[in-house]
Specification:
By secondary structure, the protein is α+β, with helices and mostly antiparallel strands. The chain has helices at residues 48-64, 86-97; strands spanning 4-6, 21-24, 27-33, 73-80, 103-108, 119-126. A six-stranded mixed beta sheet has the order 1-2-3-6-4-5, covered by helices on one side.
Length: 129
């Protein structure tokens, strides 16, 4: 099975040697994504809620480009710089996922590569078909 890797034009450019999306058959992996608004190149806001909303908006956009959506997400990893941001991240997460609750792992980390990032998330999903 061939693995396709690419970064859509409508998301933040990677800050390292990786692609945002890797797809093999119906399996999709999306790399760690920070809460950067791709239209401006700036963080969507200085708070955890705004950054989490932007990450999930970016996920939605990337998934649409590979015949998927948030209802087809299997697992999400969340890396928080501050565990105190857990509830605000959860607020944005609940809004985005609604009743679909994929498996999830949340860990607190001391640093993230993108300065001013309060968190990063990555996910695995499958296509709609």
């Amino acid at each position: 099975m061939k693995v396709e890797t690419f970064t859509p034009a409508n998301v933040m450019k990677p800050i390292g040697p990786y692609s945002h999306i890797a797809k093999a058959g119906s399996f999709i992996a999306i790399s760690g994504t920070a809460g950067v608004d791709p239209a401006t190149g700036d963080f969507a806001g200085p708070d955890a809620y705004s950054q989490a909303r932007q990450i999930l908006k970016s996920f939605r956009s990337m998934l649409e480009g590979v015949d998927s959506d948030l209802d087809h997400v299997l697992h999400v990893n969340v890396f928080l710089k501050n565990a105190a941001d857990f509830e605000e991240m959860n607020r944005a997460y609940r809004e985005a996922f609604g009743n679909h609750l994929p498996a999830r792992t949340v860990v607190a980390v001391t640093e993230l590569p993108k300065k001013q990032a309060l968190m990063t998330m990555n996910l695995t999903a499958v296509t709609k078909n």
